[in-house]
Write a structure and sequence with these properties.
14 helices, 47% helix, alpha/beta, 11 strands, nine-stranded parallel β-sheet, two-stranded antiparallel sheet, 329 residues, globular
Length: 329
């Protein structure tokens, strides 16, 4: 089902979460091939952009194939957001700037006074959103959590504040900063936010199947759903959710052969324009997400972290398929 964020029309209600260390160009491209309606980059530091960090510029690499795409920024103050959002729009021209007010990790929320720390500072949250809205001419969205901890649940308050500041949509991950990624996401908070806002609300948290996606929309009336960790090693979840939400199509089994082919495609995309000796070590972790989901794959997973070339990695995958075929028949 089509929907809009401001004047941006999106083809379906499935959004990729901006996961740090995961949402690089290769993974985003795979997810896009599954039909994802809106792609999110991993979160990028406004301070790093301000000081022209080389690694940050690499993180901003994207292609037209991935569009529409949202670049997520995190930082501590309005001025760094102004500089970063202006730079991002001038250099990569995304469809959306997303502001992170939900990251729970210590180096972001406490050391950098960014991410979910903004939940405890509504005035600063307002100023940051207002500054970015006044700096760019594309929609600005915000991703929040339910609150800092169980004694400070203020998602509705923060959501209304960022709406007043000019945000075009809000994503709600209904866990507290204290929870991190543990425990259960409280979807009722998504509904509470949706009931109070006039802008679109995207629900995030504990979507592990297309049925979860439909249930979240039915229970909370959110405009779209965001998938994060559930898609790691399982990008087919994106396709299943798109198909089920759009047409009620039930998910189909994906063969191990198809999964291995997608892993190889993911690896090839990751290695584009990179030194193989350095990059092959970095691709081991994304590949491990896939292999962990394979039956009887423990030995293959252990061997994965010893491969040093693409050829060795592909041979390992082929060997697993031969092994899998021997017990699957």
């Amino acid at each position: 089902m089509k929907w809009k964020i401001s004047n941006l029309e999106l083809d379906n209600q499935v959004v990729l979460a901006p996961m740090s260390g995961e949402c690089d160009f290769a993974f985003r491209s795979i997810v896009k091939s599954m039909g994802c309606g809106l792609i999110g980059t991993e979160m990028i530091s406004t301070i790093a952009i301000k000081y022209a960090n080389h690694r940050t510029h690499e993180m901003l690499y994207m292609t037209d194939y991935e569009r529409p795409i949202s670049v997520q920024l995190f930082g501590p103050d309005p001025e760094s957001f102004r500089i970063a959002s202006e730079y991002v729009c001038e250099n990569v021209n995304p469809e959306i700037i997303d502001i992170n007010m939900g990251c729970p990790v210590k180096k972001v929320a406490i050391t950098s006074n960014s991410g979910s720390s903004l939940l405890r500072d509504p005035e600063r949250a307002y100023d940051i959103v207002k500054t970015v809205v006044e700096t760019v001419d594309i929609p600005v969205t915000v991703k929040i959590r339910s609150g800092w901890d169980e004694n400070n649940i203020n998602a509705v308050e923060i959501a209304k504040i960022v709406e007043d500041a000019g945000a075009s949509a809000v994503t709600v991950h209904p866990r507290t900063r204290a929870q991190g990624y543990a425990g259960k996401a409280d979807w009722s908070i998504i509904k509470d936010v949706k009931d109070e806002l006039s802008i679109p609300v995207i629900g995030n948290g504990d979507i592990k199947s297309c049925y979860d996606a439909k249930r979240m929309i039915d229970e909370t009336d959110c405009d779209a759903i965001m998938i994060g960790r559930g898609a790691l090693g399982n990008p087919w979840l994106i396709r299943e959710c798109v198909d089920y939400l759009d047409s009620g199509m039930e998910p189909k089994d994906v063969s191990v052969k198809e999964k291995i082919n997608v892993i190889k495609e993911h690896v090839n995309l990751f290695l584009e324009n990179k030194d193989e000796n350095l990059a092959i070590r970095k691709i081991r972790n994304p590949v491990s997400h896939y292999i962990k989901r394979f039956p009887k794959s423990r030995e293959t997973l252990l061997k994965l972290f010893k491969v040093n070339t693409k050829e060795e990695l592909f041979n390992l995958l082929d060997d697993y398929y031969i092994y899998y075929s021997s017990f699957a028949d």
